[in-house]
Amino acid sequence: MSTINFWFDFASGYSYPAMMRIAPLAAQAGVAVRFRPFLLGPIFKAQGWDTSPFNLYPAKGRHAWRDLERVCADLALPPLRRPEPFPQWSLLPARVALVGLAEGWGEEFCRLVFHAEFAEGRRIDEVATISGILAPLTPDPERVLAAARSPPAKAKLREQTQEAEQRGLFGAPTFITADGELFWGNDRLERALTWAVRGR
Amino acid sequence: MSTINFWFDFASGYSYPAMMRIAPLAAQAGVAVRFRPFLLGPIFKAQGWDTSPFNLYPAKGRHAWRDLERVCADLALPPLRRPEPFPQWSLLPARVALVGLAEGWGEEFCRLVFHAEFAEGRRIDEVATISGILAPLTPDPERVLAAARSPPAKAKLREQTQEAEQRGLFGAPTFITADGELFWGNDRLERALTWAVRGR
């Protein structure tokens, strides 16, 4: 079975529709998905940006929010809530996701975080939000939060972010096939899946 | 009949597939296309950029060229030639296009310029290239080149570029429907056409 690496940041707007679309589309294509949460912050910083380009370039930002609204409507997702502040600080959910992905409930956790953020307008940097999402997924959210704050979990996210940078990621979502082909953007998901299946 | 404004810069890589796709897709959708050449340079400058973001941000640029190669291959366009230098200086073809669009041969001229640039690797800032493209389109290329260099033609392109900036354009290609909805990017062409036809 072909595999695709799905790199995303919980703070990233276009990672939201990609997250909501990828599981059924990949299943249909017969492609396994490896979820790879990472942090865009350090990568943006290396490009000289201290925040999202949507904030740095107002005309681009205006279009992006409007476009994302249209994309969500086309997918019949709930009306888009613009996170406040944007971007959200995604460190905590990213660390928790890595714990969950190793334990089997990570994919559902990822979808629920994006839903809380972009459909409900909740803050994903707050422990209360993350605990609430964890409650139905795992018997002991406190244990998970402690594991997410442990040195190995911190190191794992750091390594994952370094790998993203080494692989030439500059934004999210990004899809990378097993043969190393890189596709950037929610609108490239279908193309990335056909590449994963047949190459080219 | 609905109308869509197709804003493009001859220097812009993703304007190339959009230019090659738009006429048949719009005809199929029953949408009239208004061709709007403009210059991205002044708009990039206002954002603090002195060249294309593909040059300013190497990881983004690497992906863009590779992605554009894939897009051209998917459309069965000739293998992509990366313009040298990039971006090309698009002032001359933009002025000539405005003359041609008023005279009825402008759309074919636009397609031929993009083909010369991205399929043949020719310099579109050179008079010889533009004359060669004009030869089969108009009985007197010299007259056209003189008209393109006249003060009214220069003023027209300046106004068009100012209008682009006022409308919030920040890149190319951009599609704007009659009700003012803005779509950025070759990959938004289909969505812009459905909006032009039925709104939303």
Task: Annotate the secondary structure layout.
Two copies of one chain form a homodimer.
Chain A: E1 2-8, H1 15-29, E2 31-37, H2 41-46, H3 53-56, H4 58-74, H5 91-103, H6 106-118, H7 127-134, H8 141-148, H9 151-166, E3 174-177, E4 182-184, H10 189-198
Parallel strand pairs in A: 1-2
Antiparallel strand pairs in A: 1-3, 3-4
Q: Which pair has the most extensive contact?
A: A-B, 23 and 23 residues
**Based on CA inertia axes, which overall geometry of chain A fits?**
globular
The biggest beta sheet of chain A, please?
A: 4 strands, mixed
Count of β-strands of chain A: 4
Describe the structure.
The structure is a homodimer of 200-residue chains. With 200 residues, the first copy, chain A, is of the alpha+beta class. Chain A has a single domain (2-198), classed as 3-Layer(aba) Sandwich (Glutaredoxin). Chain A has ten helices and four strands; from the N terminus they run βαβααααααααββα. In chain A, α1 runs antiparallel to α6 (106-118), α5 runs antiparallel to α6 (106-118) and α5 crosses α8. Chains A and B meet through α4 and β4 of A and α4 and β4 of B.
Q: What would the keywords be for this entry?
A:
alpha+beta, Glutaredoxin, 4-stranded mixed beta sheet, 55% helix
Summarize this entry quickly.
Chain A is an alpha+beta fold and 200 residues long. In chain A, 55% of the residues lie in helices and 10% in strands. The radius of gyration of chain A is 16 Å and the shape is globular.
